[in-house]
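Sequence and fold:
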Amino acid sequence: MKGFAGMFSATLALAQMAVWFSASSAMAQDYTHPKAMQLPAPAFQRPAATDLQLVLDNGLVAYVALDRRAPLVTINAYIGVGRGHGDPGAAEAMAAALRRGPAGTTQEVFRAALADMQAEYTVTLGHEETQLSLDVLAEDANAALELMASVIRAPAFESTATAPSVSAASAGVDGGIDYASSLQGAIDLFESRLFEGHAFARRADGSGAAAKVLHGEMARGGNITLAVAGDIDPATARQQVRALFAGIAEGSVDSEAVFDPLAALASRSLVLADVDRDQGWVVMGHELPVIPPEDEAALHVMDYILGAYHLDSRLYRSSRELRGLTNDNSSFLQPGVRGPGSYTFRTYGRPEAVRLLIDVTLRQLALMRDTRVTDDELLVARGALVDGLYAERYATGLDAANAYAVEWLRRGSHDRSASYPERIAAVTAEKVQAAARKYIHPERMTIAVVGPLDRIRSAAAIEGEARLEDYGRPASPR
């Protein structure tokens, strides 16, 4: 009994301490609104592009930056050629050749060279661009630069060994993960429907001859940018880049090339894939035209408020915080450069929640179109985009080199990014609503659902949401 009393007293004392600590912490909190805090203006200044830029006589532009966070070096090469270029399948065959390594080298020798450098090498083929990435120890930077230059100059169009090609970063199954029965499967299902029949659609590998022609036309100096960053001596790295990449053929990017737009749907389309899992994944969205510079800032502010990048967006609050239906509901703004892109909204949850997640997302999209954002939402978004994401884009040597290399390939200058903070600051609530009305179209979305369809269909309505098929005209997946 005496022990119980002592235990009770100790527990009571702990409870009193917890109450005191909680009250003290609450009293210490500063609830002043950020508008009234008189915070100093952010002092971030991105590194000057001219300090990092190196222009070769053949037109190739490189960005070389010191980044000593680790004894590593990253070499990224961006080539302005993607699935939309050349004969059907030629770009895929070219990417496969780039993955095999340089011509005249067997697959075993190439893989052994990567292993000796403990290197990670990937080739990622996009709609309009191809990225080669090589990560190595700092001591192997020169050998890695030489290897990258030799692959770009003359890739192995014909496999010289029976070993499989070095895989792309975005390829297939890794470690037994079933990507088809996941959010990635829903993304693939959505994109196969959205880009069906377009030059950007996934295609089977083309011939080596067509790939050689495409490579000869597109892998030229002015259509390639490099980002070289890490634990390096920038002056020495510049000399090496100049010596190793000068042999690439001269040429310039075809800035007049454009790709056909995607035809807008007349109504919503539903694409379904039945998988035996305890979760359902949803990707919904539509085509996105090439974004003119005058619309970019307002579109980014609108997207941030709606669902991008963070855990306090309208989509996140309505789906997770208020209803607990999912761990995530986010928007993905993916514009093209000279062709169409996509604007998607991605979420997932238990099968019983899938239909309500679709319904909640559609309601939030309509709300964004029909009402103006608040002053607080506007304040937070403008600050986060400039003082957060924009600063983060150039925060390290690697970040800055990559950002500048990609922008130069796409724009041929850095004027657009230089004016970004001022353009974001000038965005108003009226401009945000205008962007929503111009670039969000809930009435004609493609909705891809991957999951146990019978369970999704038969689940009892939670908030009176519609049947699955009522959200769109069913279409068979390709």
Q: What stands out?
A: Residues 1-8, 160-174 have pLDDT under 50 and may be disordered. The first strand starts at residue 53 and ends at 55. Residues 68 and 323 are 45 Å apart (CA to CA).
